[in-house]
Amino acid sequence: MTRFDDLYTEADTFLHRLDPRVKIFSVLLLSLLAFVLSHLLSLILLLSFIFLLLLLARARYSKTLFALKFVLRFMALIAVLWPIFDPSGTPVLARLGPVTITEPAIWRGITSAVRVGCLATVWYILMFTTSQRDLVRALVKLGLRFDFGLTLAIALRFFPAFGSVMESIIDAQRARGMEFEKGGVLTRSRRYVAVLGPAIVTALRTADTLSLALESRAYGARKDRTYLRDLRMSGGDYVALSIAIALLVVPAVARFAFEVPI
Amino acid sequence: MASGSSGEQGGKEPTGGAGFVSPKTVALYGVLTALTAAITFVTFVPFAPTKGYFNMGDSMVFFSAFAFGWRAGAICGGVGSAAADVLLGSGYFAPYTLVAKGSEGLVAGLIDRSGNGKRWIRIIAISVGGACMVATYFLSELYLLDVGWGAAIAEVPGNIIQVIVGGTVGSLLAWYVRKAYPTRSRA
Predict the structure, then answer these.
(1) Is the full-model pTM beyond 0.90?
(2) Which residues, at least 6 apart from A47, have a Cβ–Cβ distance to it below 8 Å?
(3) What is the ipTM of this complex?
């Protein structure tokens, strides 16, 4: 069990001040850039650029490590398993029965692992610097229907609440002698049924009260909603957006139009 | 608790409003989505090699699909699991999770609707929905993330176990909830 920790960290860097829409676009553009680049060195360059941005965003080490834990395992798995399943290429290094390990396959595996690392870490820039409220507001501003946005906001808001509800249910069952740490996957998941039942009942009750609260606040009185603070693009936002676009377009043109191997 | 938190949500400007989705549905879907994400997060057992966790999130996907219909299955399953991915720090998986778990809930809910709660139709619904999820993860890892055959295959057995466990637990829970809340389940 892991304690939930919101990835967002309050700070006042230029990445925090940036319009959330610009951040969403930049993350998408940088993700595309990871697919445009095919050379290991340029991907490492992109990865270090992302880490530089994370450093500038004053990301906390504990949170970064927590998030990186999952990614690093996946990257190692790709780098190890790729050469075993890819027998192409000429300098053969080892041959064990049906498995052929070649040098280019090892490099391809490492390249793909670094690309996945880029795709994973680029999200942290968005998650570390944007609060959930801003994220939902940006999505609504980008054309998501307001009621869907509200559903999403409710989901994000209640996620930690239900996390702690479930933890107290687990504690209550543990006090009655239930063991969650022992046994295989199937045994353990069968025990979790004793947690899921009460959790669902709590959730349904919460949904009932929540719908009353929504109605009492005149939800549905008008088709749109108004905001106290509207999102507005400033000059710096346009500069950041054009930098992000240039970061994607220049390498893409170089690779696909002029066939520069990057 | 509920009223206080919704006050925090729309605290700055208390008048919300949009015509189409009733407040009951918004509250139910929001809460189910949050519960899916929370269960994915809390019940993880380090097992599947790639993402590093095996979880009971699928039981919530099947539960939403069987107890509240295919729409709830698709939205709560897809968005909730994707949100859990983002909050757990593997956001690059979120788009694939959205499609994989969303289609799982959608297909399972649609097949189950024609069955009137018959047991074998529910089993077919779980297996076809689960197949959608496993196939989406496998194909997107292989062709879109380009992780190679090895890593993509390594994930499949864990996903299949997840479907079996999730399907069993989810349909059991749905059966109990339908019995306890006969009116709510058709909301």
Answers:
(1) no
(2) A114, A117, A118, A121
(3) 0.76
